[in-house]
Every structure is written in C-alpha cells, then in structure tokens.
Amino acid sequence: MPHVFSQSAQHGQSASVERADLKSLVVRAMQKSLCLTFSLPLLTLSVLGHAQDANQFLQSGKNLSASQASINNSSNEAVRANPSADDHNDFSENSLGQQFIALTFHDVRDDVKRSGDRDLYAVSTQNLAAFFEWINQNQWTPISLKNIQDAKQGKYKLPAKAVLLCFDDGALSSYNRVFPLLKLYKYHAVFAIPTSWINGNTKAGYAAYGDGNLMSWDQMRVMQATGLVDFASHSDDLHKGIISNPQLNEKAAAIHPQYFPQLKRYESDAEYRTRVFKDLKHSKQVLDRELGQKTTAIIWPYGAVNGTAQDLAQQAGFTQSFSLGRSAISNVHDETYQRVLIFDNPMPEEIHQQVQNIERGGDNVIMQQARMLSFPMQQLQAGTLAQSDAKLGELLNAMSALGNSHLSLDAMADQNADGIFETAYFPTQWVRTQYDLLSRVAWQAKTRVGQNVWVNLPVYPDPKQPDLVVNLSQDIAKHSPYLAGISLDAKKQLACLWNSPSDQRPECQQKLKQIQHLLDQIRVQTRPYESLSDQFLTALRVDLVETDAQALKNHFQKFLQGDHLLIIDVDGLRSPTAFSEVVQQIQTLSESQKQRVMINLILPNSLNADQAKSMNQAFAQLKKLGIRKLGVSPYTLTQSSAIHQYLYPSLSLNSSPVTYKTWQE
C-alpha cells in the first residue's frame, strides 16, 4: 500500500479540506477490503449483445427505453423483474434464501475518465450498462426493499444471486441515465434521497453534481410509477460534516457529538439524540408525503451509523438500515445491512477480480496483516495547539513514509509515576482531561495515512475503581467511533502468570478472570457508539520479560479461547530466553490462533545497527512461523529516523521497494 504524504497532513488543515475526509475514510476502508464481496459463483464476465446496443444509444446522447431496445431472454427477464416465492431458483449458494449483496453507485456520466476523474465516485454510462449486461448474462437477480422485508418475515426466499442496486444522493443522472437502463432490463433499484437537497438546501448537492443536477419530486414520481424503483431516506440534513472537536475536525453528523467552539463544550447525549431523531423523522415525513409511500429504509450518509443512531432510526419509523462496510454479504436478519461502495469507474472485469480477492477472505480483519507502532500521546504535548499539531504532522509524515498499518495510542498518563493514571487525552467525566487530542489524532491518522487506530488503556487506571476502564472506553468510543479496537494493558497485573508455581495461585487466576470480564464489558458498553461499518476488536496486552516454559505453556493458549486478540510485548534484546519461549509456544498454535496473536518487540532507548539486525532477524522468524501481526513499542518521534532507517523491511507493508521514502520528505 504505497503512501504519498501530502503537505496538508503536516500541520493542520482547513475545514474545507477536512470535509473530504468523510468520504476518503470510506474509500480507504473499501480499498483495504478490495471493494466488493460476492458470495456466489464467479462466472466469466461478458459484455455482449444488448449492452453494446445500449451503449451506442447512450454514447449518442439518447435516452433508452424499453421500446428502443429489447433483451432476447425474456423469460429470465420476467423472473428477475418480478421475483416471487413460487420461483424455482437454484439456492445452492443461498439455500435459505436470506442473503444478498448491495452495491452503491453515485453519479453516472457519459464523460467519466477511465481513471483520475474529478469525481472519484462517478461511473460512466458505458461501464454501468456493461455491468447491467453482466448481471443479465450471469443470471443475477436485482431485488427490491420489499423482497428483503418479506424474506425476513419468512414470506419469501431471495434468489440464489440476489443483488440490491443502490444509487445515492438524488443526482439527476439517476433519472436520465440510470432509470432508462432499469426499464430496459426491468431491474429493481433503490435511490437514497437527502430530502433537504431536493427541497432547496442545494449547496452541497450542486457542489457535488453541478448546478441543477438534482432530481425533482415529479421525476421521482415518474420513476416510482413503474414499480421498479424504491426510494429511501438519505437523511434530511445529515449528509455533511459537523465540528466534532476543539481542533475543528468535521466528521459525519449522524454519529458524532457536535462541538460548539464558542461555548467550548460538546452537545449532551440528549441534545445529540434530539438532533438526529428530528432529522430522520422529518426526512421520512417528506418522502412519505411527496411520493405517497411508507418509507421503510434509511441509507446512512457516508455509511456512518452506530447502535445509537440505528435505534433512533427505528424510533423514527424506519425498519431497514443500510451502511457501508467491509463485507458486502448481508443476511435479511441483520440489524444494519452492509453495502459496497463503487468507485474509480471500474470495468466489469475489474469488479470480477475484486470479487475473487474478497472471496479469499480479504474482508476479514482478523486475517489481515498488521504492522503496529505503539505511540505514547504524551509525545504530542506542547505549549500551544499549533505546536502540538506540528508534532502530529511529524508523526503522520513518519508513518506515511514507513508504510505501517496500525497505530496504538496510549491515551492516559501516570503523571506522578504512582500507578494511578489520573489524566486522559480525551473528554471524560471520570478523570481529568489533560488535552482533548485523541479524537483529532485518531481521525487524522485514519483519514490522512490510512491507519487502523487502536487505543491502549491501563487495565486499572485507578485500582480503587476496578470498572473505571469500561466507563473510559465508552467515552472514547463516543468521540472516536471509527477505532479499530481497544487493548487493555495488564503487564503488571498479570506478571504472576509467567512464573510457576505462582501462576496457579487462586489470586493470580482471579486476576485473569476479572480482566477477561472487563474486556467483555468493553465490547458491550462501547457498542452503542462504534461504527457499524467497521469491525471493532478488543485485546489483552501483556509483556514477557522473564518467564519459564511451563508457565507460558499453561496460559498461552488460554488467552486465545475467547473472542479477543492477544498482544505480547517481548524484550528480545534484554531477554532472548523469553523470546525463544514465545517462539516455541507459537509452534503449538493452530493457524487460526496465530491470526489472533500480535508480537511487539520492545525498542531500546537508542536503536543502533546491531540491535536492529537482531530485531529484523526476530521479525523474520516470527513471519516464517505464520505470525502476521507485528509491531514495536514504544515508538517515539526522537527515534523515528532510526526506526525508518533500520527496521523498514520488517515494519513496512509498502508493496515494493520503489515506494520507499525517507521520513523527512
């Protein structure tokens, strides 16, 4: 994954630049999951017959209609146009008739460039027609929202190759380019409408698609009358970013509490719920009134939805919820359905390749490689916000050049070194907020340089409050819903595990049980705030400085029996024996267990060439054993240059040496 660092990432960006982050975030996620998932047979693509005829009409600027062209296989066409419970479809790939995929398109233009178009999300009419013909040739069945609802209620089985075609934002091309193709092929599709855009709040819509290039209600009524088209809410006015932290980052309005700079406060939970509920309720009322329908679906702008927003949508009267996610396969019983974002004007052959890649498990976060840097946020403290932002720019620059994939942030500080972490780098009522930095750092790292951001917390910030870390995790998720995960640092608390016979003492076993309970509670309490478009993980973090083989054997696999990851910090330079024991135990793990282990090597205070050689050899040995998640700790700005110079081969996921960049560039 090559990275080219932009100047804007170094020192802080204007609000206008920040707005682009909302969709760039989605694109980065989709690029990592290779864009599409098909759970069905991968058949040879063909762009034949009627799509070619359709393209000739479209390229000449003429609208198509069913009377201008026809499709020969009318019997198959009729089945797809009006699927029913009596159809005798092959359910070998969807035996219960409960799975489908959803594809998300935006603008469709005749002049979209093959690559580098001004609109990353636009698809050419030629490519869309070719894809529609591929659907026809390979016997896919476009379905409707009602089909999904009926299947959920047990009234209907979805076809084996069910696909929901979605077109977002209400662009005029939905009427004059997409709609004629739907009539030609008799395909169903759903259109997501931001109602305020149609009713005069046109600034954002015109900026995206050009002045006057939004549909009218009359045009939508014409589409609706054919029975081929569903209309869903795309919210009323949540298709935008709102200021979400003191640094003025703009983030998706549906899932972030708004920050009021003049008042220097965030909106309360009650204010947030009222704002989002009113918007959703109004959008549904407008659609119901203008189109004479009972609107059932909310399609979230940017795919931004969490558990709280989903509950508010249900209260507003929506029974179906659609996001954007890493997986395109949805089950009719899912609370929120996942959709795949189509971008960069792909040809059908490219979609086919993307399909194959995801079929191999590319959308499974657990299976993906990781190269993690563990960074103490104290490094970003400075006298002024500008100075802190300059340090953040330095960190982003270094990661962009290095090409790592994960960043773990130590989000609390023990200022007095007394074992009590009394300050935090995020807003919370439970401890003193030293600096409100986490939201900005996590957002910039994710959207600017594609990092999967974790937060590392001490398992007991205050030993007198054993459940405090659960409350803190909830506050973190509320303001940073796109986190990849939270790890609990239990190095001191679980030191007893690594030496027998102390590891078998009841008090030591009780500590382990309590910490595993905290991890489970974090999963539960953060769920209302986590993005449902991403896979949120939890991890137990321990270190091995001194250990013995028997104690390690007793507990290594026990950590991997739950749903959590295990992050092990090993100081192989100071304790080669501990590293050797870890290597021996890794050899006893199954391949699936290895996927849930991350090994972090402890960095010395000043890394030299000889030490780096030993660390690179250790990384190579771990990779040979099948460990795909590796990292270093602690990563500091003062050591950035040395780490880049010596450990680049081990820590970079750049695809080629050609992408190597010095971190000062």
From TrEMBL:
A Pfam family matched in the record: Polysacc_deac_1
Entries under InterPro entries matching the protein: Glyco_hydro/deAcase_b/a-brl (IPR011330), NODB_dom (IPR002509), PGA_deacetylase_PgaB (IPR023854), PGA_deacetylase_PgaB_C (IPR032772), Polysacch_Deacetylase (IPR051398)
Family matches, as Gene3D superfamilies: Glycosidases (3.20.20.80), Glycoside hydrolase/deacetylase (3.20.20.370)
Organism: Acinetobacter marinus
The protein's name: Poly-beta-1,6-N-acetyl-D-glucosamine N-deacetylase PgaB
The NodB homology domain, residue ranges: 161-410
Molecular function terms from GO: hydrolase activity, acting on carbon-nitrogen (but not peptide) bonds
Keywords, ordered alphabetically: Signal
Keyword ATP-binding recorded: no
Record's signal peptide: none
Record GO biological process: carbohydrate metabolic process; cell adhesion involved in biofilm formation
